[in-house]
Amino acid sequence: MKKVRKAEDIILLLRKVEILVNQGKTVLLSCKEAGISDVAYYKWRREYGGLQISQVKELRKLKEENSRLKKVRI
What we know:
It is built from 4 helices and no strands.
């Protein structure tokens, strides 16, 4: 079953994996220690990489507003 995570939690997991990789561990081993799959790590890195938690909150707010506006338009 797919586990749903908050964007803030994803950012923290990405940082944890990056720290472990910088310490010399492989991405696969780092992901295993963080409790995520390497596939999820690469997907999240593509989506959230380089963002701060405040930026993620703003992005989520904008997506919700966009969704709301699309419903109003229809």
